[in-house]
Write a structure and sequence with these properties.
Length: 111
């Protein structure tokens, strides 16, 4: 199974493919503009795409994880496993036992 960052990149690429306004915005980014903030065009493209993706999730009133799941090609079982892995990693990074994490976040009990 891929790691979450791979799914995120896949979702952002799909979002870009379906978003002509974002494609146009990215096409207008110049080398001078990128260099003026100390980066490359490729890095600035990536930052803008990620920012617009997160903004889109906010506009929809959902978290970024659920928007990622909407944009990737995976079965419901795979999506549940991706979400579970994401939250297990989060719980581990916070030093919280998985069962305690679930009790704090009962909406995830189906995972």
């Amino acid at each position: 199974m891929k790691d979450y960052s791979e799914y995120f990149r896949e979702a952002v690429a799909s979002f870009l493919a379906q978003n002509p306004a974002l494609q146009k915005e990215l096409a207008c980014i110049t080398v001078d503009e990128a260099e003026s903030i100390g980066t490359t065009v490729e890095t600035l493209h990536s930052q803008v795409m990620n920012q617009r993706f997160v903004e889109h999730a906010t506009q929809l009133g959902i978290d970024t994880n659920h928007l990622v799941l909407q944009f990737i090609d995976a079965s419901e079982n795979e999506k549940n496993q991706i979400l579970k892995n994401y939250h297990q990693n989060l719980a581990n990074s916070l030093g919280i036992d998985w069962q305690d994490y679930i009790s704090i976040n009962p909406h995830l009990s189906h995972l």
